[in-house]
Structure formats: structure tokens, C-alpha cells
């Protein structure tokens, strides 16, 4: 039997994970690209559960970029305080909304470079929005994806941008968005930091790190 290496091995491992987490999807609640952009910006250093508790009142008060652009900073800070780093997040939300209103006709752009040019929007946030709001493949690299990609031997990089590029080269473009959801689900459930629960892992027999102590 031929030993699978590189892309073939990665896809086989990924397909096994997809069978374990068939319903893996974006955990943030949103109805449109604007709401997903805001929710993802708030999720930095914060749980999705907490963000989902905050956003209903925030979206009711500021349903569009135009509304947020005219917002009072103190009011926005109060609404998002529990997400952490609320002062910086509030400034970025208002600045981002102002740019969307004046330069993008109040619409969230479906373009990576235009998204990352917005205040408070990095490649992770941009790829979340592209993949989930617009159906454009985006390779999200968060703490879970970074950890699992390293453990699986899919990358040796530590920098998120380099990891993103490595995964894009390794995996077919049409799988990028779902890969992020799947790896995040597995990272939260079993392949945790600092110690994975290998004894309960359904793909342990195919993991390159099997039997090796994981330190990250």
C-alpha cells in the first residue's frame, strides 16, 4: 500500500476530522457581512460565547456602518466592555464604520486587501468575513489552527501570515474555509493547549505527533 505524504496525507487527515465534526461552522451569530465583521473584531482575545451575548444590543443600536460611524465612543465602549480591550475595539469599530460609509458606500468589501486596510481588521478577521459572509475561500489562522497545523506537520512557521500561506499551498482552495472551522472545533474539543487529549482523539492513529509530547 502506498504511503501517503504531503498534500495527500493532509487531506486524508482533514477528511477524517470532517467526519468527526460535520457541523463545524462559524460560532459567531450574524445576519450580514457588517455584523460578521463587527463580531469578528470583537472576538479578539474574547470567546465567541461572550461576543454573541454582546452583539444583539450592539446591532440593534448600530445596525449599519453609517449608524456606527456617528456613534458616541463612550456609548460603544459601554456596550462592548465585557469583550475586553473595549476602548481600542470601540475606536476601531467607529473608524472602520466611517471608512466603510465614505469609501465603500456603506458596504463591507469582499476583497482581502480592502478588508485588511480597515482599522482593527487583520488577515484572520478578513478571512473569516470572506469565507463565511461572501463564500470566498479564506484560510483563517487563529490560535487553534496555528497549534494544530504545527502538530500535524503542515507548517513549521510561527508567524500567522506564513502559516496561512503554507496551508494555502498544502490544501485545495475550496477547502480553506471549512478547514478553519474543522481545526478550531478539534482544537477546542481535544487537541488542546498545552496538553492534547490524545487518548480520546479519533484520529490519533494518523497523527504525526502520536506518542510525542506536545509542548504547544
UniProtKB/TrEMBL annotation:
InterPro entries: DNA_glycosylase, Endonuclease-III-like_CS2, HhH-GPD_domain, HhH_base_excis_C, HhH_motif, Nth
GO-annotated biological processes: base-excision repair, AP site formation
GO terms of molecular function: 4 iron, 4 sulfur cluster binding; class I DNA-(apurinic or apyrimidinic site) endonuclease activity; DNA binding; DNA N-glycosylase activity; metal ion binding
Source superkingdom: Bacteria
EC numbers: 4.2.99.18
Domain HhH-GPD: residue ranges: 42-189
Name of the protein: Endonuclease III
Organism field: Geothermobacter hydrogeniphilus
Amino acid at each position: 500500500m502506498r504511503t501517503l505524504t504531503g498534500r495527500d496525507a493532509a487531506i486524508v487527515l482533514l477528511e477524517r476530522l470532517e467526519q468527526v465534526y460535520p457541523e463545524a461552522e462559524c460560532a459567531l451569530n450574524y445576519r450580514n457581512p457588517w455584523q460578521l465583521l463587527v463580531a469578528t473584531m470583537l472576538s479578539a482575545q474574547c470567546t465567541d460565547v461572550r461576543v454573541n451575548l454582546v452583539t444583539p444590543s450592539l446591532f440593534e443600536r448600530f445596525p449599519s456602518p453609517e449608524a456606527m460611524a456617528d456613534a458616541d465612543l463612550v456609548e460603544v465602549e459601554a456596550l462592548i466592555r465585557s469583550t475586553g480591550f473595549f476602548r481600542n475595539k470601540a475606536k476601531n469599530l467607529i473608524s472602520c464604520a466611517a471608512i466603510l460609509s465614505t469609501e465603500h458606500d456603506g458596504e463591507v468589501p469582499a476583497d482581502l486587501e480592502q478588508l485588511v486596510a480597515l482599522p482593527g481588521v487583520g488577515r484572520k478577521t478578513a478571512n473569516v468575513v470572506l469565507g463565511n459572509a461572501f463564500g470566498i475561500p479564506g484560510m483563517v489562522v487563529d490560535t487553534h489552527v496555528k497549534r494544530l497545523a504545527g502538530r500535524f506537520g503542515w507548517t513549521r512557521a510561527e508567524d500567522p501570515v506564513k502559516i496561512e500561506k503554507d496551508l494555502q499551498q498544502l490544501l485545495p482552495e475550496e477547502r480553506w474555509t471549512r478547514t478553519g472551522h474543522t481545526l478550531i472545533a478539534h482544537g477546542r474539543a481535544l487537541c488542546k493547549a498545552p496538553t492534547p487529549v490524545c487518548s480520546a482523539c479519533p484520529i490519533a492513529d494518523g497523527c504525526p505527533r502520536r506518542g510525542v509530547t506536545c509542548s504547544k
